[in-house]
Each structure stands twice: as C-alpha cells, then as structure tokens.
Amino acid sequence: MQQDKIIVLDFGGQYAHLIANRVRRLGVFTEIFPPTAPVEDFKDAKGIIYSGGPASVYAADAPDYNPEILSIPVPKLGICYGHQLIATQLGGAVRPGKVKEYGIADLTVGDANHPLLKDIPASSPMWMSHGDMVERLPEGYRVIASTKDCPIAAVALDEKQIYGIQFHPEVTHSQYGMKLLDNFISICGCNRTWNMKSFMPLITERIRREVGNRKVFLLVSGGVDSTVAFVLLNKVLGSERVMGLHIDNGMMRLDESQKIIEFLKAEGMMNLRVVDATDAFLSKLAGITAPEEKRKRIGATFLEVKDVEMKKLNLDPSEWMIAQGTIYPDTIESGGTKNADLIKTHHNRVKEVMDLMKQGLLLEPLADLYKDEVRMLGEELGIPHNLVWRHPFPGPGLGVRLLCATGKESFAKESDIEGLAEYLKENRIEGYVLPIKSVGVQGDGRTYAQPFLITTPGLSWKECERLSTELVNRFKVINRVIWQVGSVAADKPQLVEQYATRNNFDTLRKFDNICTEFLQSNGLYEKIWQMPVVLTPLRVAQKPCIVMRPVNSTEAMTANFAQIDQQLLSGLWQQFKADGAGSLWYDVTHKPPGTIEWE
Q1: pLDDT tens for residues 186-195?
Q2: pLDDT for res 306
Q3: Which one-letter DSSP state was computed for residue 68?
Q4: Residue of 319, 311, 306, 359 whose CA lies nearest to 216
Q5: Helix 502-521 to helix 566-578 angle, to the nearest 10 degrees?
C-alpha cells in the first residue's frame, strides 16, 4: 500500500527538517523538497508545508521558488517565512516587525472552532523566531489567532485550505505545536501508517542499491548513530561485507573505547577494528582555538587515520565504500541545504567527506532520520535498550567540549553593553558577561557570542528561564545564559591560556564522569536526554570553571534545558569542589537560541 505523503518546502530554516520529523512522528511519511521543485513532483502529495527561513520575502537575495506550487489543489500551511511568502503571493504585504520576537509568546486563539486550532487552549505558549510580520492580509484571509506583539499570528483562507502561522509549532517549546500539526494532517485527510517497521524495507533496498557489489567500511564512533548504522549494515549486507573501525581520538569519555568493544562483541560482531590515534589528533589540534578550525581538523584527521588503516589491511579502495552514521541535524546545521545558514561544521561534513559524497563513495544509511527515529530503528533491530538509549556523544567527542583560548583575546564587558547595568538592577540579579564565546542559533542563523553568568543564588528554574530569554533577546553580545551552582570564591572568573592537550582532556574526562555517575545514581540518566560537560578557559582562585549542560530533546534540533532538583546539585558541587573545580555553572539556555554543544 502506498504511503500518504506531505511535502515540506525548505526555505533554509533550521527547523525545516524538524517539521518533517514531527509530521513523521505523527504517522505520515514526509519528504523535503526545494521550493523550486516542478509541480509534477507533487502528484502524490496530500498536503504541502512551507517552512521558515532566515531571509526576508522582500529581500533581493530571498530564496527562489516556484509560484505554481501554490495552485496545487491540496491543503497548505505556511510557517513563519512560509506564511509571509504565501501572503505576499496572494497580494498581502510584509514589513519588519516593531519588535523582533525570539522566544515563547502566548498565542491567543481567536476562533476555537477552526479545524487548524481544534483542542488548542485559548491561551497557548508558542515559539516565535522572526523579525518580519504580515502587515496587510490578502483578500479572503481572516485572522484566527494573535499574540501581544503579533496581531496576525495565525490566518486562514478556508475556501482554498491555505493557512499561515507566524510561530513555530514544530519546536519543543511550542506546548501545543504537535496538536496544531496533527490538526493539519487531519485537514489533509492522511492515513497514519509511517513507522520504523515500514521504513526497514525501504532502507534495506536503498542500501543494497547504493552499495551494489562493493563492501562497506564504517567509522564507528561508539555513539548511538554509528552503532545503529553498524548493526543495520551487518544485518542488510552480512558481516563479511562490512568492516567497522573505531578510532580512539583521545577525546573519548572515560573508558569509552573499551565499553564500545564490549557492547559490540556481546552482540556477536567481531568485524570491528580499534585503533588508538590520540597522538595524531592532538598534534593536529596543537595551538588551535577556533571552534570551526578544530572541527575541520578533527574531521580531516579521522579520514587520514582511516586511510592509513585501510592500507594496513590491504583493502582496495575501489571495492569499498565509506559509511557514516550521519543524521539529519548534522546536515542541516552544516548548511547542507541550499538555503540554510551554517551553524557549525560537523566533523562528518568537512570538505574531504563532501568530496567522497560527490564521487559516490559515501554511504549514509541514517541521513534521513532524526535521533528519536534512530533510537526507534535501533529497537527494531533488536539492539539492547541500554545501548540504544545511551546519551548522544558528538563525533569530535570532548574536542568540542574543551574550549580553547590564547588568554589574550578581547571581549565585551558589562560596562560596554548599553542598558545591561539597568537591567540587572531592575531584576535584582548579579553576574558577568564572561570573556569566552559559544555557538548559538537565532532566527535561523549562526551566532558566536558571549555567555552571561548569573551569580545570584536561590533563583528558581522558572526565574532562570525568564532571565535567559530576556538577556539573549535584549543584548546582542549575549547568546547564552548560565547560572552558578557553586564557586570557591566570589572573584570574577579570569581568562587563561588553554589548548587541546592530553592533561586538559583528562581533567574534562574526570568531571564528565562525575556528572554521568551523578545522573545514574540519582535515577536521572534516562530522564535527561543529554548532558554535555564543558571545560572553559576560565579560572577562579586558579581552579577550572566547569559548565554542565543538561537538556531534554527528541531530535537535537530543538531542546529545553533540563531542570534538576537544586538540592541534588548542592551535593554535586561539593564533589566537584573536592576534585579541584573552581566553579560549577549550569546552562539555562534553550535551543534555540543556544546550540546543545558549546562549539
């Protein structure tokens, strides 16, 4: 039976693929098309969603699109940029908003009986991320919902089943966003038959077609994605046609490589080779501080080590394909679609990898899936629960959690930021703009800015959430907010020289392991989706300052900071202090505007 399908037009928004993921989670197969696709490509579509995007519809460099798509007689939903584009196509007007909204806004439902808003409360928190808004509606449009700063937040042209919303229902922060998408699926009349069981025959056929008579050489990092990819390839092709290579880059978690070997051997997979390449990686990272350069060097070194190992094994490159456990977020955050902004280059999207892709020598069996779908596929493949549900771990490992600095960089101070002192006084909080930078994402674009440290004790998580949202929205120099769990002194943190060295990774490994054991001993490991631990190049009383970044997510494209019981945190801080930490900080930034990893 043919699957019903909804098409998402990708205008470059960081959430374009997230929309597809959400619709698939609701049981409907979804494909991503460029907005320039010819009308004949939509013949099987039951509905079309226009994604958000970083451009302005009136800008000279706005994405190209095929205007004939709007005439296809199926329901359509425009989200943010997509909503604005449809409105202008039909004769409406868009202008820059008086207030740029980045954060949660209360949606006031104006027509509770409308099928798009069915079962959504009269006041519902939704995520806004935009600078423009629709000023004049096309003929026949009517407003069905609004927010305080956006009077035209949801609209309907019922006779043509065209709908537009200014907010993002697909992100985790939109409390009833999934319900709105569910309502749109119902409007489209779709059967909900998509799941990992139905995906298995499709991915099996694709792997066999792409590989042909060749064999596959897979880099197994030990994370969930590469492990699922390894088991999948063994199942589809047989172990005699698959070889796994685990490269210990010196940036693994404590005892990580040994655990990987034990996990896979227990599954009966003896076709895994392990090599320690710590020296090769550390030599390439010597003296490097820029996050993008670190990522690129790590990605390139993985391939260099792979080539050396293939030569040792006398493997004929013409007989082998290279495989990776790449998933959707790796691609979209690396600017992997035509209209997307670069947020950060993933190690599996460096130039050398892209060259392999162009030559048809790269296999990425999971590239259409998000983390939650990979986990479901892992369960479908029979991988043990404790392996499938391990915390995600980036390919570059702790390399993107060890922040590097020369110690001589210049940064903005509190006194340089207009209005900050007044804001802090008004909200009765104290803190500092830290002399470091981290990567973030706002309005579908990359930011690289400074974190703000709140040192005021006793704040509730709700207060931290509000302050985080306001500080990032109000002050451009800030893209992330952290709260101080504890510190050995009240001194202002000092920037020091710090590089990717064995000793620094050992320090980070130690504190990372303390955090992992803390989660496990308090029954939090499976309740919290991921908790990166970051070693900053900052010191208090000459002791290192550590950031914990607990988040909850399903697909890594959006996330909320997890709210651990603060009584438990006081015990964790005592352990950190006993092990030589100067300060323990807690990242209270959602994604967006802060990426999950700091680099």
Answers
A1: 999 999 998 8
A2: 85
A3: G
A4: 319
A5: 140
Lowest mean pLDDT among 85-89, 291-295, 326-330, 487-491: 326-330
Q: Which residues of 367-382 are buried (b: 16+ CB within 10 A; e: fewer)?
A: bbbbbbbbbbbbebbe
Residue 517 identity = E
Q: What is the DSSP string of 346-389?
A: -GGGSHHHHHHHHTT-EE-TTTT--HHHHHHHHHHTT--HHHHT
Average pLDDT over residues 564-587: 98
| Beta strand extents in 398-532 (DSSP E only) | 431-433, 438-442, 445-454, 478-487, 494-495
Q: Among 134-143, 386-395, 460-469, which stretch is predicted with the lowest mean pLDDT?
A: 386-395
- Check: CB of residue 413 under 8 Å from CB of residue 312: no
Torsion of CA 70, 76, 82, 85, to 10 degrees: 30
Q: Active-site residue numbers? A: 80, 168, 170
Q: Residue 278, class by beta-carbon neighbours within 10 Å (0-12 exposed, 13-18 middle, 19+ buried)? A: middle
Query: Over 188-239, what HEC string results?
Result: HCCCCCCCHHHHHHHHHHHHHHHHCCCEEEEECCCCHHHHHHHHHHHHHHCH
Contacts of residue 283, defined as CB under 8 A and 6 or more positions apart, other chains included, come to none
pLDDT (0 to 100) of residue 345: 43
Pairing of strands 478-487, 583-587: antiparallel
Is residue 273's pLDDT more than 50? yes
Tokens 């709908």 appear where? 163
CB 257 within 8 A of CB 274: yes
* Residue 506 host element (H or E): helix 502-521
Q: Are 401 and 598 in contact (CB under 8 A)?
A: yes
| Strand 142-146, strand 154-157: pairing | antiparallel
DSSP 159: G
d(CA 574, CA 248): 32
C-alpha distances (whole Å) from 523 to each of 132, 392, 528, 565 are 44, 18, 10, 12
State the average pLDDT over residues 163-171: 93
Q: Which pLDDT score, from 0 to 100, does residue 138 have? A: 94
Residue 183 near residue 116 (C-beta atoms within 8 A): yes
| Inter-residue contact 22 to 178 (CB < 8 Å) | yes
Q: Which domains does the chain have, with CATH numbers?
A: 5-188 (3.40.50.880), 196-396 (3.40.50.620), 414-587 (3.30.300.10)
Contact between 31 and 5 (Cβ < 8 Å)? yes
> Cα separation of 372 and 376, whole Å?
6
Q: Which residues contact 549 (CB under 8 A, 6 or more apart)?
A: 530, 531, 532, 533, 534, 561, 587, 596, 597, 598
CA–CA dist 531, 128 (Å, integer)? 26
Phi, psi of 105, deg, nearest 5: -130, 145
Q: What is the pLDDT of residues 520-553, one digit of tens each?
A: 999 999 999 999 999 999 999 999 999 999 999 8
